[in-house]
Amino acid sequence: MSSRRSRSMQSGSSRITEDQITDLVSKLQRLIPEFRNRRSDKVSASKVLQETCNYIRSLQREVGDLSERLSELLGSLETDSDQASIIRSLLM
Amino acid sequence: MTLARDTAMKNPTNSLKRRFSLKFLKTLVRIRKSRPPPSPSASSSWEIRWRAQKIKLAAYSSMALSVGSKRTWSRALTMKLRATMGNRRWSSWKGSKKMTKRRIVAKKNMEKRHLEKDMNSGLQQLRQLVPGGESMDPRSLLEETAHFVRCLETQVRVMRSIVEGFPC
């Protein structure tokens, strides 16, 4: 039995340590464009989580904007035109 | 788990991008053929917004279906979207939000005692943003978030390239 004081949490059958949390948080940090170039020890976990939330929201906004643009573009396609057949050929 | 399968579970791949692109494009073709319900206030800008909403739902559902059932977030999102789109086949599917009282208490204890208190606010927001997040323990939430973010990025990249590739 290790005498190291690892602060562990129990969730049913799985034990999770603070190291694992730190590890996962730094994994997230590497995904966020805001932090990609910074050294991990300079950013707090709570800042990483906050920026992750901001990043997710901005991605979702972008999905909405791109959907609007796609809708406009689709609406401007004439039926059975060359453009429509290009789209169809993309699926072949 | 083999290393290959473990990696595939963790990171979105090029094959995911292809599966998503194909599914999404096919749905776009279907959407283009569809017409909005007739309405006295219908205008072309209203039709554009109506179609944009369908496209947005198609993007999320294509991605969730392409990821399949191996991620909690993709299962949760698929169920949520089916409810939104009113698909009667799935209305009786109860889903996995089986959060027993014991798990709720355990989760709260974890967050109060062992995690930095200032992470709680971030975790709480993530629970709202990541599909199925409400019933995840903190470790799963962080893992699912990482995968979810990468899939969202893939989705945005593909949609952007479709928009840019549009003949005009």
From TrEMBL, chain A:
Domain called BHLH: residue spans: 5-59
Pfam families, per database record: bHLH_ILI
Domain of life: Eukaryota
Cellular component GO terms, alphabetical: nucleus
Keywords, comma-separated and alphabetical: Growth regulation, Nucleus, Transcription, Transcription regulation
Listed GO MF terms: protein dimerization activity
Main location, first listed in the record: nucleus
Compartmental location: Nucleus
One GO biological process term: regulation of DNA-templated transcription
PANTHER family, sorted: TRANSCRIPTION FACTOR PRE, TRANSCRIPTION FACTOR PRE6
Protein name: BHLH domain-containing protein
Organism: Trapa natans
Automatic annotation (TrEMBL), chain B:
GO annotation, biological process: regulation of DNA-templated transcription
Gene Ontology molecular function terms on file: protein dimerization activity
Keyword Transcription part of the UniProt annotation: yes
Xref: SUPFAM superfamilies: HLH, helix-loop-helix DNA-binding domain
Subcellular location, record wording: Nucleus
Keywords: Nucleus, Transcription, Transcription regulation
Superkingdom of origin: Eukaryota
Limits of the BHLH domain: 103-152
InterPro entries according to UniProt: bHLH_dom (IPR011598), HLH_DNA-bd_sf (IPR036638), IBH1-like (IPR044660), IBH1_N (IPR059002)
Transmembrane segments: none
GO cellular component: nucleus
Pfam families with a match to the protein in the record: IBH1_N
The protein's name: BHLH domain-containing protein
Organism encoding this protein: Trapa natans (Water chestnut)
